[in-house]
Specification:
This protein folds into two domains: 33 residues; 208 residues, SGNH hydrolase (Rossmann fold). It is 56% helix and 10% strand. The protein has eleven helices and five strands. Helix 8 links the parallel strand 4 and strand 5. It starts with a helix and ends with a helix.
Length: 248
């Protein structure tokens, strides 16, 4: 009887020791496993960036991923500003220099690619020089056409892509994703009442494009974030991935 008790006691003790050792091993592995730093992204633009708080939607999508990558997202976005006006104001340049960003996103005023592409080019060159000097990557926010002028999307895309090629910059093809979504569902409400700024759905689609561009992962299957019904959200996610998926 006593021997049985002793054996049981030894077994329990061994189990406790094994559990303790496994716990210590797991703790040590967790302690020594390198932590992936957050991806630091600075948006510079205007109301096309801040309407419906698109950068916050992007952060929420990244946080909801099965393999989340923390994003540190900030914006210098002022109503109606062109990139040239941002240079004159100086706040955006100060913010670029204040931190070590991974990406700086440049969003030009919506009509400037159509009306003043040379002015856009000059501003982009100045920004790109500062961005690269800080060790960051320039990412161009390719914007969408006005709701009732869809034919201008081709010209907008051409200007942004030509500038990206000239600078060696990357492109987030947001406007092309909007075009794709409208092709899939012409009635989809991406615009606010003014036919220019994004609705909540439009901002979500933009965030999906940045998610795909920055993280190189499909947004399909990510949460709807109370933006629309699941079918509509899936269409937006698919439209984003169709234009932003990495090309081999």
């Amino acid at each position: 009887m006593n021997a049985t008790r002793v054996l049981k006691g030894v077994a329990v003790s061994l189990a406790l020791v094994v559990a303790l050792l496994l716990g210590l091993i797991g703790w040590q592995q967790q302690r020594t496993q390198p932590q992936v730093p957050p991806l630091r992204v600075l948006f510079i633009g205007n109301s096309y960036t801040f309407t419906e708080d698109m950068p916050a939607l992007l952060s929420a999508l990244a946080s909801a991923d099965d393999d989340p990558r923390a994003l540190k997202v900030e914006s210098v976005a002022l109503p109606g500003f062109t990139l040239a006006q941002h240079l004159q104001d100086g706040s955006a340049l100060q913010r670029i220099k204040a931190e070590q960003w991974d990406y700086v996103v440049l969003q030009e005023q919506s009509l400037t690619p159509l009306e003043n592409p040379s002015g856009m080019q000059a501003a982009l060159q100045t920004f790109d020089h500062v961005i690269k000097r800080q060790g960051a990557t320039t990412l161009l926010f390719l914007t969408w056409s006005r709701e009732f002028a869809p034919a201008t999307q081709a010209q907008i895309s051409q200007v942004y892509r030509r500038q990206a090629q000239r600078l060696g910059a990357q492109v987030a093809p947001v406007g092309e994703a909007w075009q794709q979504a409208r092709t899939l569902d012409p009635a989809i409400a991406l615009y606010s009442a003014d036919g220019s700024h994004p609705s909540r759905r439009g901002a979500y689609l933009s965030a999906c494009v940045f998610y795909a561009t920055l993280l190189q992962r499909s947004p399909v299957g990510l949460p709807a974030l109370k933006v629309a019904d699941q079918q509509t959200v899936q269409l937006l996610q698919q439209a984003a991935w169709a234009v932003a998926a990495p090309r081999s």
